[in-house]
User: Which sequence fits this backbone?
């Protein structure tokens, strides 16, 4: 998959299959008997956490790219109505079903204050402790947008710094506690993958490498340089201007005309025009060069 193909996706069908595998792992661990105890239920849950961090962050990054910043009100309303109504219905049903004799509703062995405030993982015992994953998810939904997007659009390096800082903080907190905070690390790893995949430089790092990638053939029929044998030469000083006025020919498809490159040469076209003049090429389709057109 190329960077352009990834950015064109509106949903990720492959992740549905991965989510199904994670669900089966959890179900078989709990209900499959001793023959399935080798499956770690936490492994399935952590796969869910990685997917959650990746999808939530990808949606937020794309909204920020379209609008300049994300709408926190819309984000929190969506999260609220996606989980809380069904969660409360199940919680109340459990409290009624397991109520002590003579009482219409119980406190689920003292755990109700934790369950109502989504501190589920801190409940020492009780009938509803299996909901601990929802407590972690809800706190992630509450804090992650504020930590990563409250400052608006920031550089890739700054956002990566925030993410690595939170991962380190979660690791330290896990070491000093009952390992409760270790479950935040998989979610943050999913966020990290989303941040990298959203930017061309990051996508080039995490994209699976191929044994051999070559540039397309030029009109004369000769092949372009192989990634393994040659690296594109650096763009000229002119192509490094503040607007990136022209992609150096060696950094774009050989078939592109230096004066008027084909639109498919770069993701936005070397000469893609905006109201204020030509825009800077951000990625070459010819080969996944880590630098492009002075970027």
Assistant:
């Amino acid at each position: 998959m190329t960077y352009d193909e990834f950015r064109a996706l509106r949903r990720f069908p492959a992740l549905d299959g991965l989510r199904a595998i994670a669900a089966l792992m959890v179900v078989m661990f709990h209900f499959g008997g001793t023959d399935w105890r080798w499956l770690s239920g936490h492994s399935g849950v952590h796969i869910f956490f990685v997917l959650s961090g990746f999808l939530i962050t990808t949606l937020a990054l794309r909204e920020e790219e379209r609008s300049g910043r994300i709408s926190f009100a819309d984000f929190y309303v969506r999260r609220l109505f996606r989980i809380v109504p069904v969660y409360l219905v199940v919680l109340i049903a459990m409290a009624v079903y397991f109520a002590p004799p003579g009482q219409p509703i119980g406190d689920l062995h003292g755990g109700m204050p934790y369950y109502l405030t989504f501190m589920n993982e801190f409940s020492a015992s009780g009938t509803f402790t299996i909901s601990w994953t929802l407590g972690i998810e809800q706190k992630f939904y509450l804090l992650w947008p504020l930590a990563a997007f409250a400052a608006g659009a920031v550089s890739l390096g700054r956002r990566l710094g925030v993410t690595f800082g939170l991962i380190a903080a979660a690791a330290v907190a896990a070491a000093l506690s009952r390992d409760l905070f270790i479950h935040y690390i998989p979610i943050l790893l999913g966020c990290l993958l989303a941040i990298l995949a959203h930017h061309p430089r990051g996508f080039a790092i995490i994209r699976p490498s191929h044994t051999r990638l070559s540039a397309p053939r030029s009109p004369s029929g000769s092949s372009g340089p192989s990634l393994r044998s040659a690296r594109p030469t650096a763009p000229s000083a002119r192509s490094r201007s503040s607007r990136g006025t022209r992609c150096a020919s060696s950094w774009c498809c050989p078939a592109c005309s230096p004066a008027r490159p084909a639109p498919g040469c770069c993701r936005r076209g070397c000469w893609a025009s905006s109201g204020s003049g030509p825009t800077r090429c951000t990625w070459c389709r010819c080969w996944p060069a880590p630098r492009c057109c002075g970027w």
Notes: DSSP finds nine helices and two strands in the chain.
